[in-house]
Structure formats: structure tokens, C-alpha cells
Write a structure and sequence with these properties.
By secondary structure, this protein is an alpha+beta fold. It folds into 2 domains: 174 residues, no CATH class; 166 residues, Reverse transcriptase/Diguanylate cyclase domain (Alpha-Beta Plaits), CATH 3.30.70.270. Helices cover 61% and strands 10% of the residues. It is elongated and about 95 Å long.
Length: 370
């Protein structure tokens, strides 16, 4: 559940690419099997199967291995070469496949990068011109060379149009993704911010109730952080906060969420962990912080962490809100600080909210940093 960038996949494709790709393949296959006599030949059937399986593999089998841009590039190059090869080998080369090449050009344009689209268009246009000239010169096809040449500017113009459109759409999508990320993440550490944490904690509580599984939550505080700012300056203080965030992210499992609550406080949401498991996870984090050298090479120093943990169990028979769980964990943190810092304190969540927790709201670290 930690916030990470999603890898390129078919979801990153501009939407027309798979549709156009299959249109090209189906038109080509229709030309190959147009003759009843040709359908009966093993060669025609083999080429149709190669086209269908090859394009299916590229579109649906390789997104986990290759980026979307790489797949779009491979699709254009492979089909550019397969079109003339298939038609010549199956004896249907007398057909003018301008429409098919136009489809490939559209795929090239939709690859999301105008420069790449033009490079692919140059390859495709060269193949189309060479194939058309070969058919015209060898089979006296009624598509003269000057007609082929006149079609090239049209193909290139369409590539520019689709390429510019796709690049604009891609930039707009990236801009929206960045805005969405910035709204939900802390600018300094890159971790989820308070808003994102509260939303995630609410969802995690519902999941815990649905599956009757425990949920632990920890609030972590940098010990003596005010002294660091006073002694080394706020620039070093920012480095400390970033290092804490990195250590917390490293300690997290794939479905945990670590975020910055505010100031020098962090929240660690630990689904499916009972009290003992949460304390063990917290102890590993505390030890990693204690061993870590903070600051710079010229002036390094060691710090400690105080951690307050609470555990919510749906079987306890009461409902708790995200704010109530955070208050209980924050009360545990306050106890750990009061008992000497550099330690873990676990307080059970014995009810929807406690009077003590109400007196010490989450995120109020002014007393603890003294």
C-alpha cells in the first residue's frame, strides 16, 4: 500500500493502439484468406496463425516485461515487415494494402512520442514504397510509382497529426497524475500525507472488519528533533526527515502504508498484525534508526525513535474511526516519550476512544520534542 509509481503497462497505452493494431491484423488476414483455394493451403493458415499469435503476444503477453513505448515500437516494425512478407509468400501480393499501411502509420503516431512516431513512419513508408514498387514492376500492378510517391506525404502528415495528438494526450495524463500525486503526498519526503493516511486507514478498518483480521497502527516520532534543528539548522533537519522516511519505507511490507503525519511524526499502518507482530516490526525499525548515521559526511550523528502502537481487533465488538485509532497510538507514543524515549509502547484499543487520548490529540508534538 506504500505509494509507488506504477510501471508502464497496457494501461499506459493511448487507447486507439490495441484497436488499430487488431484492425490491421484482421484486414491483412482477410486478404490472405480471401481466396477459397488459398485457405486450404498450409502456408496461408500458418501465416494467419503467426500474425494472430504474434500480435496477441505483443499486446497481452509482454506488458509485464517491456514498456508500453517499446511494445508500440515493436508492433509497428514487426507488422511493417510482416505485411509484404505474408502477402508475397501467400500469393496475394497483387492487392494494394494502402489501408493496412495507413493503419500501421496510425499506430506509429499513437505511440505517444512525436519524434519516435516520425522515425517509425519513415520505416513504414520506405517499406510501403519498396513493396509497392516491387509489386508494380514484377506483376504489372495498376498502382503506378507516382501514385505511391504521392501517398507518402499523406502518410507522413497523418503521422504528424496522430503523433501530436497522442503526445498531447500523454502529457495531459502525466500532468493529471502529478497533480493527483502531489495532493496526496508530502512534498519533502514523498510519503503519503495526512489526508492520504486517513483515507487509507478508513479503508483498512473496513477491510479488517470484513475479514475479521487485526489492524495495528504506529505513530513514530524523531527523538530530540528540535535540538537537531537548533544545532545543525533546518537543512540538516530536512535530511533527517527524509532519512527517517527511507528507513520507514524499507521496513514496510508491500501492503503496509508509511506516511508523514506532520512535523517529525510519521504514521505506520500495519494490516493483519496482532500486538506481538506489530511490536516486533516496531523494534526492527527502532534498531535500524538507532544504527543509522544521519546528517552529512562532514557532520554525522545518531538519533533514536519513539514508537507508539495500538491494535484494533474487530472481534472486540466496538467500532473505531481512523481518528480514534490515531489518538490511541499517539497516546502510546506520548507514554514512550515520557518513559525515556528510544522505546516502544503498546496500548490496547479498549474502546472507541479514551479520555486520556482525547486530551492528547494526534499530531500535537510540541511537548514531546522538548
Amino acid at each position: 500500500m506504500a505509494a509507488t509509481q506504477t510501471p508502464d503497462s497496457l494501461e499506459k497505452f493511448v487507447k486507439p493502439i490495441p484497436i488499430l493494431q487488431w484492425l490491421v491484423v484482421l484486414v491483412l488476414c482477410a486478404h490472405v484468406v480471401a481466396s477459397p483455394a488459398l485457405v486450404a493451403t498450409d502456408r496461408a493458415v500458418a501465416f494467419v496463425l503467426i500474425l494472430l499469435s504474434g500480435n496477441g503476444l505483443l499486446l497481452y503477453g509482454l506488458p509485464q516485461v517491456l514498456s508500453a513505448k517499446a511494445i508500440a515500437t515493436i508492433l509497428v516494425i514487426v507488422d511493417t515487415l510482416l505485411v509484404p512478407t505474408t502477402l508475397i509468400e501467400t500469393g496475394t501480393s497483387k492487392t494494394d494494402l494502402f489501408v493496412v499501411y495507413f493503419g500501421i502509420i496510425m499506430i506509429a503516431g499513437a505511440s505517444g512520442n512525436l519524434r519516435r512516431a516520425m522515425a517509425l513512419a519513415a520505416v513504414t513508408c520506405t517499406a510501403y514504397l519498396g513493396f509497392g514498387a516491387f509489386v508494380t514492376l514484377t506483376d504489372q500492378e495498376p498502382v503506378p510509382i507516382h501514385t505511391l510517391l504521392l501517398r507518402l506525404p499523406f502518410l507522413l502528415t497523418m503521422t504528424l497529426f496522430y503523433g501530436a495528438l497522442a503526445e498531447f494526450a500523454q502529457r495531459e495524463r502525466q500532468h493529471k497524475e502529478k497533480l493527483s500525486h502531489d495532493v496526496l503526498h508530502d512534498e519533502l519526503t514523498g510519503l503519503p500525507n495526512r489526508r492520504y493516511l486517513m483515507e487509507t486507514l478508513a479503508r483498512t478498518i473496513e477491510e479488517a472488519k470484513r475479514f475479521n483480521s487485526p489492524l495495528s497502527c504506529a505513530v513514530i516520532d524523531v527523538d530530540n528533533f528540535k535540538d537537531i534543528n537548533d544545532t545543525y539548522g533546518h537543512d540538516i533537519g530536512d535530511l533527517v526527515l527524509k532519512d527517517y522516511a527511507s528507513l520507514l519505507a524499507l521496513a514496510s511490507r508491500g501492503y503496509d502504508m508509511a506516511g508523514r503525519l506532520g512535523g517529525d511524526e510519521y504514521v505506520w499502518i500495519l494490516p493483519r498484525l496482532e500486538k506481538e507482530g506489530a511490536i516486533m516490526a516496531g523494534e526492527r525499525l527502532r534498531e535500524s534508526v538507532e544504527r543509522h548515521l544521519f546528517g552529512t559526511k562532514e557532520s554525522s550523528f545518531q538519533l533514536t525513535a519513539s514508537i507508539g502502537i495500538t491494535t484494533y481487533s474487530p472481534s472486540a465488538g466496538f467500532h473505531s474511526t481512523p481518528a480514534q485509532i490515531l489518538k490511541a497510538a499517539d497516546l502510546a507514543l506520548y507514554t514512550a516519550k515520557r518513559e525515556g524515549r528510544n522505546r516502544i509502547c503498546h496500548l490496547p484499543l479498549v474502546g472507541p476512544v479514551t479520555a486520556e487520548a482525547e486530551q492528547e490529540p494526534a499530531g500535537n508534538s510540541s511537548k514531546r520534542n522538548e
